[in-house]
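Bumping with the actual sequence this time:
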Amino acid sequence: MQTVATKKMTNLDVIRGAIAAKMDSAAFNSWIAPLDFEIVDNALVLRAQNQFSVDFINSVHRNTLESVAGEYGLTLDICVRGAKISKAQIANDNNVQKYTPVATTVADAGAFDAFIASDENTFVLSACKKVAAGGVSFSPLFIYGASGSGKSLLAGCIRDASAGRVVMMTGGGFVSEFTRSLQNHNVFAFKDYCRNCDTFILDDVNALAGKRATTDEFVQLIIDLRNAGKNIVLTANTTPNNLTGFDRRIQSLFASGLVADVAMPNENVKRVMLMRAGVSANVANALAGRVSSDGHMIAGVATKIRAYAELMGTDVTVELAEHLLADTLKKSKTPIAMVHDMCDKLGVSYDAICGAGRNRSLVLSRGIMMAVLKGATKLSLAEIGQYVGDRDHATVMYALKQIEKQSTSDLVLNAQIKELIAEYK
């Protein structure tokens, strides 16, 4: 038996295969496969190319690696290539670590009445209130919408209305804090900080795209929180299936709870937003139809009007407001102006729309624009093609058929197209 155990213990290929069997293939190929495997003094030694890899593997995959090493009677050591083996290099959950998040100034969103809901947003608002009230049957709640639709405001409302402990971070903040914890060797304290909560909110998941180490840690965080029955709220500018920079496994995890969209402010919502911000009723009524359906833009318009009134000591009339906002208010609804405006609403660049890109999100945005131009103008298909990158009649016809087929089964997409057509007619 001792001979058999020794052979198993020294067969690194068998050990490597046992590790691969217990891990996700993408994580194994990214982090474990590139390591140098060696057995030294009854220890499985894994050597990485740099300290960052050592810290990350220790923080995310150490339990799995130790479990496999133990099956072969081995301890585990992970170190940088060329470094001497030292027990001090072994990350240990029992080490006393402290983590203090970077101080940030976060504006209070207040109660949910801070979010002015149109009929299209009743569902997502109800879901957010349910999360804030306590445990829910769906987790994560994935909120998506274009920039300026109110995703961050809803996330802030959940944070402020929840009774338990809430951890809220931006996507960029999570990336920087995780990286900082690796550099400061207190990653376990950071992990505890994120998990020791009743509700975890990440605003702008898109910021994690392409950041492999951070994404792996975040996915494990989501799994741990969900298994513990905690509430999870994620926001992004598109649906989970259309997120770029994430593999299918992660997209399906994000979509495994409740996915809800936030519609852009309609004319009535814009009017109420302006009036709540201190703009007089007659000015708000005049501007509501000419301000872009973007919450950030509307807030900027209100700020400019208030600032002028305070600095100049005079009331702002409709005529004065139009003069002040000449560079902001919508002008003639030409087809090219419509396309540029829709680029802002859908979160894509005009160059990308006119380019040859074929990713799903871009193709969908391009199709929406063609459908809106067809419904809101009297342009021919060939003329529509000229405004979205000089595409020919057949290409436009095919795109319109595809978007019509998709909108038949996607009520949200269908409502979005109808709303844009009504706005541009």
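The tokens above came from a reply further down the thread. The beta strands are 36-40, 43-48, 75-80, 141-144, 166-170, 199-203, 231-236, 258-261.
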